[in-house]
Each structure stands twice: as C-alpha cells, then as structure tokens.
C-alpha cells in the first residue's frame, strides 16, 4: 500500500501563511492601540500636573493673564484627550475586527487539520484491512500447501 499523503497539504500551507499574516496584522493593531492608550495616560498625567501647577499659581497670587493661559492650555489638553479617545475607540474596533479575521483563518486551518486526521484514520483503517487480507491469503496459502503436501 502506498504511503499516506494529505491531498490538501498545499491548501493548508497556504491557509497557514494567511493565518500568520493575519496574526501579524493583529499584533501591529494591538501595538497601535497600546501606543494610543499610553499617549492618553501620559496626557492625563500631564494635564493633572498642569492643574496642580495652576492651583499653586492661584494660591501664590498669579495674574489673570497667567491663569487664562493655564485654562487655555488645559482646554487644549482636553481636546487632545478627546481626539485620542476617539482614536483609541477606532483602534479598538480595528483590533476586534482583525481578531475575528484571525479566528476565521484559524478555523480554516483547523478544519483542514481535522480533515487530515480523518483521512489518516481512514488510511490506517484501509491499511489494517489490507494487512489482514494479506495475512489471510498467506494463511490460506499455507493451509493449501500443507494439505496438498507441497510444503
């Protein structure tokens, strides 16, 4: 009996390449999301620092112009945070979409793996039947030779 060869090996190799590509894309999107979240964290920390600085200036008796500059700066930071938050939402949506693509690609590869397992199981079954048939033929041949005195 000829050796086992999975008939869809090339298809599975291709699907594995697609899966690897999609996983790399997902990693890049995760990295981008993490970078945006880090910018948000830094921006919030800096905004908090500027608020505390403005409060110190108020207590020390700074001019209205200085306080207005702080207020303008803090408002600008709020707008930056809003924009970053929107970017974070978009990045999270892209990560989720890509995660679904990776799951689908993974399922495609998995289905081919299961098909190979099934084909291999069938091959082993047929191989066992073939071996059993060969053994029976050998036994029958031996019986015939020994009965006829040809052995």
Summarize the structure.
This protein has 151 residues and is mostly helical. It has helices spanning 9-60, 64-147.
Secondary-structure map with pairings?
Layout (H helix, E strand, L loop, with lengths): L8 H52 L3 H84 L4
Helix pairs in contact: 1-2
Tell me about this structure.
About 90% of the residues lie in helices and about 0% in strands. The radius of gyration is 35 Å and the shape is rod-shaped. The relative contact order is 0.12. The model has no long low-confidence stretch (mean pLDDT about 90). Helix 1 packs antiparallel against helix 2 (about 65-145). The chain is mostly helical and about 150 residues long.
Distance between the termini: 28 Å
The total count of helices amounts to 2
Structural class, from secondary structure content? Answer: mainly alpha
Give unreliable regions as ranges. Answer: none
DSSP E strands, number: 0
List keywords for this structure.
rod-shaped; 151 residues; 2 helices; mainly alpha; single chain
């Amino acid at each position: 009996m000829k050796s086992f060869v999975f008939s869809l090996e090339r298809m599975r190799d291709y699907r594995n390449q697609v899966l690897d590509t999609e996983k790399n894309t997902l990693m890049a999107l995760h990295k981008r999301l993490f970078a945006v979240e880090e910018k948000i964290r830094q921006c919030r920390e800096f905004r908090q620092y500027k608020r505390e600085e403005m409060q110190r200036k108020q207590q020390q008796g700074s001019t209205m112009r200085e306080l207005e500059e702080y207020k303008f700066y803090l408002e600008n930071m709020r707008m930056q945070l809003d924009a970053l938050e929107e970017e974070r939402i978009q990045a999270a949506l892209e990560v989720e979409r890509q995660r679904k693509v990776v799951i689908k690609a993974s399922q495609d590869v998995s289905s081919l793996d299961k098909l190979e397992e099934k084909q291999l199981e069938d091959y082993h079954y047929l191989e066992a039947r073939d071996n059993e048939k060969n053994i029976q033929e050998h036994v029958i041949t031996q019986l015939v030779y020994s009965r006829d005195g040809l052995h």
